[in-house]
Design a protein that fits this description.
Blueprint: H1 3-22, E1 25-26, E2 35-36, H2 39-50, H3 52-70, H4 74-97, H5 101-131, H6 135-174, H7 189-209
Antiparallel strand pairs: 1-2
Helix pairs in contact: 1-2, 1-3, 2-3, 2-4, 2-6, 3-4, 4-5, 5-6, 6-7
Length: 213
Amino acid sequence: MSTKKMTTVGVLCAMALALNLVIRFPMIPTVSFLNYDPKDVVIVIGGLMYGPMTSLIMSAVCSGLEIFYRGGTPLDVVMNMISTCAFACTAAWIYKHNRTKNGAVFGLAAGVIASTASMLLWNYIITPIYFQIPRETVAMMLLPGYLPFNLLKSSLNAGLVLFLYKPVATILRRSSLAEKKVYEEKRSRGMVLLGFFIALTAICVTLALQGWI
């Protein structure tokens, strides 16, 4: 990894952690102990720039550092990484092999599905051990709680990535933190509008579930 790439990844990790500190809120009342934070948006952007391995490294760094200011256990780090990597690495891997607008959209959609499915499985396996509750209780929470939370969370992140990728990429390029070839695609108004629509829909659904609208 070049010095410039290491610097850029470090800056992105710092951005992800800053967002994690500033923005954090529940999305689904039935699982109010699960909170949304937007760090995955930055981790996905890093993956789209440099590939799935970068998303994996950023996920490990951010998840590891998060326990120092939020507390937690190694199990929290593992679950955090599973959720992030299922989304970010899937999207980055598909985009790496199809660096087009359609590839980005398909990669993010696949990431949403992979993250949601993986968290249903791993919460069913790990949550009873972590909280010392019957597995049957967790099973009853999967469809009304864990499924909509992870689906909304991943969809909101996907929309924000589509909306923010090009501006973030442009800032990094103009700051000489990344090479121009990483951002060959022109910004598409359609992609921005799609990202805005997906993010707005996820936010409105969240607000409706919380009874705020």
